Amino acid sequence: MIDKFLEKKLEKALHPESIDAALEKVLAHSPKKQYIQNRFAVVQREIKAVRTVDDYVNELYRFVKEASDHRAQYVIFPEYNIFDLLHLIPGLTTLDRWLNRRAKSKGTSKSAGNAHLQSNRMLRQLFSAVSQPTEKALLLIVERLARFFGMYIFTGTYIHKQGKRLFNRGTFFNPEGKVIFSQDKVHLTDFETSIALARGDCFHVIDLPAGKAAVPICMDASYFETFRLIAAKHADIVIVPIANNEPYDKWRAMRGIWGRVQEAYVYGMKASLNGWIGGMEFTGKAGFFAPCEMTENFDGVLKIADEPCGDEVIVFDLEIERLRQARNDAQYFGDKNETFERTHFAKTYVTKEAAPDAF
Amino acid sequence: MRAAAVAFDALAKNAPIYDWMHEQLERAKEANASLIVFPALVGNLFKSEADFIEKTFSLSERFPDICICPGSFFETAGGRTYHTSFVVHGGKRLWKQRQLYLAKWERKRQLSRGNELVVFEMHGVKTAIILNTDVFYPQVARFAAMQGVTIVLSPLSLIKPASFAKQLSGLWQNVQQNLFFAIESAFNGSFMDASFHGKTIIHAPLELNERQNGIVKMTDDGLIMHDLPLGKLDRAKRLYNPIRQLNIPAYRKLF
Fold it and tell me: pTM for the complete prediction?
C-alpha cells in the first residue's frame, strides 16, 4: 500500500510535462559545442533536498553546463544520482533531517560505517516504490541535456526495476540523445545485499571517440576481477561512479579505483556523490587516475577534488597513446602464467561452503 | 605470533652477507620473534646457490625457534633458472615457492616461472610466500586468500624507478582486497645492472591497525617487529570483506 502511494506521489511530481517545462526554462541559449574529444568531466556533487523537479533539473543542468564551458566532450555523474528526488516524497525531508541529526549526534564510527541503518526492509520498499518514476525522470533529463549540449553523458546510477528485481544501474547517452548502453552493478555492498538488490552479471565495453571504455559501479572497483575482465575486452578507460557510504579516509578510498588502475594499466576516473540521506553519510573525491609512471608525483593520481564533500567538476584530457606506451614499458604488467591460471581458477572461485576460511 | 621483517641496504665494506643475516637473527631472537622474512635477492649475494642454502640451514639450526624466510635467490634446476624463496625451520627446508610471474627485467634474463602457489601451515597458521613480482598480479593473492591464508611472506625487490605509491599498489592492495597479514622485506641496492628500492613493511587490514592505514610497521633500514593480532582478523572481516561479495558467475571469462 505505502509503496504504491509513494510511487504515485513521485510519478505526479516527476511527470514528463513538468520535466519538459523545467528543461525549457534552462535550455535557452545553444552551447558552442566545440568540445575536445578526449576531455572528460567527472562530477562530484552533494545530495540536495530538492523541493520541485525544477530544482533537480537545474542541479544537473549546471554541472553539464560547467563541463560544456570547459569544452569537455564527456560528463560523468555519480552513483545514486537520484537521491535528491526522494525529497519530493511528502514528509521525507523532515524525516531525513531528523535521521541525519540523530546519526550525526551519535557519531558514525569509521569502522562500523552506517551499520545502524542496514538490513532495512522499509528501505527495500522505498527503493522499489521510487525506482520507476526516478529512472524515467533521470533518463528523460539526461537524454535532453545530452542532445542539447551535444555531449556524451553518463546518468550516474539509479534503481532499475525488472520484474520484482531491483538493480543499481547507470546509462550512457550519446550526443544525439540515444542510449549507448546501460550497466548494472556487479558487486554489491553488504548494505545493498541486505536490501536484496540484484547483481549484474557482466561488464560492457564500448567504443567512444576517446577510446574503449567501461563503467563499473562503485564497489565493482574493489575487485581486481572487474578490471581484468574489462581489460580483456581492450578497454583503456574505466569510469567509476561512486557513492561511498562512510566518512572520508584517504586509505579507505585507495582500496578502490586507484589500486585497480595500477594493476590493469588503464585510465580511471571517479564521479562521486556526497552528503547525508536517511542518516547515512556519503563522501568521496572525484578525480582521475593513471599508472604511477604516468603521473607527476609517481603516485597514480592525475587530478583529484580538494575536498571529499561539496560540488565540483574535475576535468582532464586523456592521452590513450601515452597510456599504451606506459603499458608497453611497464615492468610489472602483462606477464602470463597459463598453467597457474588454468590449474588454480577452479580452486580460487569456490563457494563459501567449499572455502569457509576465506569468508 | 611475533613477526620480524628486515630491510636490506648496503653491507659494510667486505662484511659477509652471512654475518648480516646472523646479526638480524640475533636481534629477532632477543625479541622473541618466531618468524623472520629477509629481502628478495639476498641469496644471490652469497658465493653460490649451494653456499646460500647451506648457510641458511646452518643459521636455522642456530636459531631453532624461528621460522626463517631467507629472502630469495636464482635457483637453477633442469636447465632453467627460477626466482625462488623458501622457509627453513630447525635446519630443514620446509616449503619452497617459485615466483609465478616475471617482471620485464626478469624476462630479459630468461628466468622461468613456477606453476603453483604453495599454501602451508606455519605454527598452525595457514601461510604462503607471495614472492616479489607476484605481488603485482592480484590473482596470486586472491588464490591464497581463498585457501584461507592468514599470513603472507613477501621478499621484495622493486626495480627503480619506483615510489612508495608503486609499492603500495602491490602487496598493500592485496592485503586490503583479501584481508590477511603480510610481512614484506625489501632489497635496496644494485644487482645485475639494475637498482632496487623499497620499504620494509608489516601490513594488516586497515581495520586492524591504530592509524587505519594498513601499515603496522615500516622501515628503510634495519629490523621491524610486530605481534600479529591473528585473533582479531575475524572481527576485521565482519566489518569489511570484499570476498563475501565475489560474483563468481561473472568471472567465467576471467582467464
Answer: 0.95
Q: Provide, as residue numbers in chain B, all residues whose Cβ is less than 8 Å from the Cβ of A335.
A: 101-103, 107, 113, 133, 137
The percent of residues in chain A predicted with pLDDT above 70, rounded, is 96
Range A73-110 burial, b when 16+ CB lie within 10 A, else e? bbbbbbbbbbbbbbbbbeebeeebeebbeebeeeebee
Which residues form the domain of A233? 2-358
Residue A302 to residue A283: CA distance in whole angstroms: 20
Domain boundaries, chain B: 2-245
Q: Which of residues 80-119 of B touch A (CB under 8 A)?
A: 100-105, 107, 113-117
Q: What is the pLDDT of residues A61-76, one digit of tens each?
A: 999 999 999 999 999 9
* Residues ≥6 apart with Cβ < 8 Å to B77: none
Split into its structural domains, chain A has a count of: 1
Instruction: Place domain B2-245 in its CATH homologous superfamily.
Output: Carbon-nitrogen hydrolase (3.60.110.10)
CB neighbour list of residue B79: distance below 8 Å, 6 or more residues apart = none
User: For residue range A283-302, what is the model confidence (pLDDT) as tens digits?
Assistant: 999 999 999 999 999 999 99
Q: For residue A313, what is the domain's CATH number?
A: 3.60.110.10
CB B41 within 8 A of CB B191: yes
pLDDT band of residue A119 (cuts 50, 70, 90) is very low
> Which chain A positions have a beta carbon within 8 Å of B213's beta carbon?
251
A259 to B176: CB separation less than 8 angstroms, yes or no: yes
What are the pLDDT digits (tens) for B212-252?
999 999 999 889 999 999 999 998 998 899 999 999 999 98
Output the nine-digit C-alpha cell for B72.
Answer: 630469495
Indicate the helix (H) or strand (E) that contains A279.
none
SS3 readout for A180-224: EEEEECCCCCHHHHHCCCECCCCCCEEEECCEEEECCCHHHHHCH
- Partners of residue A259 in chain B, C-beta under 8 Å: 169, 173, 176-177
